Amino acid sequence: MAHYLVTGGCGFIGSHLVKALVKRGERVRVFDNCTTGKAENIADVADKIEFCSADLQDIDAVSQAVEGIDYVFHQGALPSVARSVADPIVTNNVNINGTLNLLVASRDADVKRVVYAASSSAYGNRPKSIKSEDLPPNPASPYALTKYVGECYCQIFTQLYGLETVALRYFNIFGPGQDSSSSYSAVIPLFISAYLNGEAPKIEGDGEQSRDFTYVANAVHANLLACHAEGVAGEVFNVGCGERASINQLATLIGEMMESDTKPVYVAPRPGDVRHSLADIQKAKRLLGYEPQVDLKTGLRRTVDWFLQ
Ligand SMILES: NC(=O)c1ccc[n+]([C@@H]2O[C@H](COP(=O)([O-])OP(=O)(O)OC[C@H]3O[C@@H](n4cnc5c(N)ncnc54)[C@H](O)[C@@H]3O)[C@@H](O)[C@H]2O)c1
Predict the structure, then answer these.
(1) 266 counts as catalytic
(2) Which residue in 6, 36, 80, 149 has its CB near the most CB atoms, within 10 A?
């Protein structure tokens, strides 16, 4: 039986991945220091997994965690543009040094493949709104840069050392369990919790900026495919739905689902934010057999229901 390591397994996406692996009967080890994640996210499978509570910046702990591991899903990172603008050094240390530690340890432990959580933010503000993997990256924030450097390190480790890596550029993943309590939280949980509390959701800028909002089950599906697909070592793939919605449309959709007539308020645009982001998912379809499993409206309904329960 294969043995999987999920870094950041107590986080939003990582915890969904951990539960999917456990459901398939796989052996799973989780590595997390619970900076932004919570042990309670995987509480219902806690007796079926191994848990290493440690920091990605600690190379000895990372080396210990990869011992005996076949496949690594590297989700662990500090995942916010705004946090990275406020404190670029800590984001750099965790996202770049942590990823390098993980790659070195995985190489030395003969891990079969590392699947890396990359980010669509690597594209930055390119005039072309549809982002395909052959566009040159243009990161617009320290966070975006760190995630892109992680990708480059993955490719270098494949080329230099033969460690198989696959990078998945996630486009605005959302779903149950996503943190809504921090000023660094993503827009969907922030909007839902605003409506829940009878407060006006805050829209940064004019709200016409758009994103390819992607339900978390699609990201899990892409990870599982990327882990075992043949002939894709060193490749980078977009993971999105291939549909876009503006922030204004999103606020309206969520407001309708929550039967709220509270109107959003408009505040100053966020530094480092990109204007439009839409995934071209043809490469993932062709080489991974990826197809989005859950569309935006269905995903939003499930997410709203989770927050309401
Ligand atoms: N959510 C999105 O839309 C999105 C988009 C693009 C990329 N990503 C990437 O996907 C991954 C998961 O993101 P998420 O949304 O689930 O965020 P999250 O914050 O819920 O998960 C990140 C996890 O990493 C852990 N972590 C942070 N620093 C650590 C450290 N020093 N040592 C060990 N663990 C540490 C956190 O505690 C958390 O559990 C991240 O790598 C993020 O950059 C997410």
Answers:
(1) no
(2) 6
Structural domains of the chain ordered from first start: 3-174+215-242+280-292 (3.40.50.720)
The ligand 1 atom nearest the CA atom of 76: 24
Residue 304 · residue 257 · CB < 8 Å: yes
Is residue 126 pLDDT above 80, yes or no? no
Q: How far apart are CA 165 and CA 239, in angstroms?
A: 16
The closest-lying atom of ligand 1 relative to the alpha carbon of residue 80 is 43
pLDDT band, very low/low/confident/very high, at 129 (cuts 50, 70, 90): confident
Phi, psi of 245, deg, nearest 5: -135, 145
In tens, the pLDDT along 74-111 reads 999 999 888 999 999 999 999 999 999 999 999 999 99
CA angle 9, 6, 286 (to 5 degrees): 115
Helix (H, G, I), strand (E, B) or coil at 62: helix
- Residue 269 DSSP label: P
Two structure tokens written together for 189:
């949980």
Q: What separation in Å is there between the alpha carbon of 165 and the centre of ligand 1?
A: 18
Q: Which of 100, 85, 80 is nearest to 7 (CA)?
A: 100
Cβ pair 18, 44 in contact under 8 A: no
Within a 13 Å sphere around the CA of 42, how many CA atoms are in the beta-carbon half?
A: 34
Query: Which of 176, 272, 158, 157 lies closest to 219 in space, CA to CA?
Result: 176
**pTM exceeding 0.90:** yes
Q: In whole angstroms, give the CA distance from residue 189 to residue 43.
A: 21
213: Cβ below 6 Å to ligand 1?
no
34: CA distance to ligand 1 center in Å? 10
Asked if 165 and 237 count as a contact pair (C-beta separation under 8 A), the reply is no
**Which residue CA neighbors atom 27 of ligand 1 most closely?**
77
Q: Is 96 in the pocket of ligand 1 (CB under 6 A)?
A: no
Report the C-alpha gap between 142 and 265 in whole angstroms: 28
